[in-house]
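thought: fold this chain, then report.
action: predict
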Amino acid sequence: MKEVEVPRMDMINAEGVIAVGHAGHVYLVQLASGERLWTVALATLEGASGCEGQPVTVGIVGEIILAGSMGHVFAIRLKSGELLWHKEQRFRGSGETNFAFVTPTKD
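observation:
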């Protein structure tokens, strides 16, 4: 089997922290210690009560955490946990929300 080199992606590890989505919440966790730095309860945000207890998909892009749950998409400031925006994208289907990220390549 051929080994493939996967470039390190900033969105996976932004300055030693990881974003975790679980049961309607987004957590920012210090990678080295496991200390929780902040928590956002998505269901407490206006218009997002359907996210309570539901799976959450997360990704880090630069200084923003994108979170998706039950057809809702959230942009959260990495350093503070402040909500930047929230959009409901649930028009059909089961409400599952996924993200795709692109890794920049070098020329």
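thought: worth noting. The first strand starts at residue 17 and ends at 22.
final: tokens above.
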